Amino acid sequence: MPGAPQLMLIEDTLIWDYLTYLVGAAGVGMIIFGLLWRNSLLIILGIVLPGGMLALSASQKITLKFEVVIVDQSGGTMAWRKVKQFVGGDYSFRDGRDVRISKPKGGPIGTVVINDSNQKLQIIRVIYTANPQIPGPSGRDIVAVIDPGKTGNSLKRVEHFGPMSEGPPGTIKSLSSFDTLDWLAW
After folding, report:
1. Residue 17 scores a pLDDT above 50
2. The pLDDT of residue 159
3. Mind listing the pLDDT tens digit for each residue in 82-102?
4. Which pLDDT band holds residue 3 (cuts at 50, 70, 90)?
5. 53 and 61 in contact (C-beta within 8 Å)?
């Protein structure tokens, strides 16, 4: 949309990325020299080493990944977008300020919320139970309050978005009789 601010989220290049590129280039070199010198060992190493490095790199980076939710208020309407499998980097707010984005500490997954709107946001953890006396949402805990132009986070994935007046969904699908949902509300 013309005139809309550009939301900039720049991801870091990690040392694992550089090592993967370096080993990949070395593998191509081994294959070329193996073909020129008719050395099958160099050809095999040129194929196996980059594949092994790619697997090792992916296994190390998977623990670094998290989600980022960017909330913007273009034209008076609240909008959000989710960036999955982020590993860290920088975000440029509409006013030109840059902020470093990194994984929330304390859990295997997490969500960082960037509030680039004019409204205060809340991450609310909604508790669901299949108990017949208290069906549906049975409790709410405020996980974070995020002021305009700030960031906040949750150690879980934010799964529901919307105004406080809408409320969280009445039911969710779950494998257990007790579950939670993190809701980003404005």
Report:
1. yes
2. 87
3. 988 888 889 999 888 999 998
4. very low
5. no
Spatial CA neighbour of 113 closest among 78, 74, 145: 145
Name the band, by pLDDT with cuts 50, 70 and 90, for residue 145: very high
Decide: 75 and 5 in contact? Cβ < 8 Å: no
28 and 84 in a single domain? The answer is: no
Burial class from Cβ neighbours inside 10 Å (0-12, 13-18, 19+) for residue 74 reads: middle
- Residue 3 domain-assigned? no
Residue 89 lies in a domain: yes
**Contact, 34 vs 42, CB < 8 A?**
yes
Check whether residue 52 and residue 105 sit in a common domain.
no
Q: Which amino acid is at 24?
A: G
In 15-148, which ranges are continuous DSSP H helix? 15-37, 40-61
Q: Which of left, alpha, beta for 63 (phi over 0: left; psi -120 to 50: alpha)?
A: alpha
Domain span at residue 21?
11-62
54 and 133 both lie in a single domain: no
Q: CB atoms < 10 A from the CB of 147, how many?
A: 11
Measuring CA to CA, which residue among 116, 111, 174, 98 is closest to residue 143? 111
Instruction: Return the pLDDT at 54.
Output: 84
Q: Is 6 within the bounds of a domain?
A: no
Contact 120, 147 (CB under 8 A): yes
Whether residue 76 is contained in a domain is answered as yes
